[in-house]
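WARN retry 2 of 3 for item q-0093 after timeout on previous attempt; input resubmitted unchanged.
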Amino acid sequence: MDLSDELKAAAWRKATKSASNQGDCLEVAPLSGGRVGIRDTEAPEQMPFVVSASVWDAFVDGAKKGEFDF
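OK item q-0093 returned
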């Protein structure tokens, strides 16, 4: 399956806490090879970003450590 078809069939999900902000959030979807698709919930028709497993893991690790808290 090519990436375009995989993105169309992907199981997109967003954080459960995002429901209170009127949809201003991102959705993620696991893809083959450990990659992750990332898209804007308000513009699902736009091409999502696709990152490698190592990039996604580094992001999640940083978020858990509070590196992105403002």
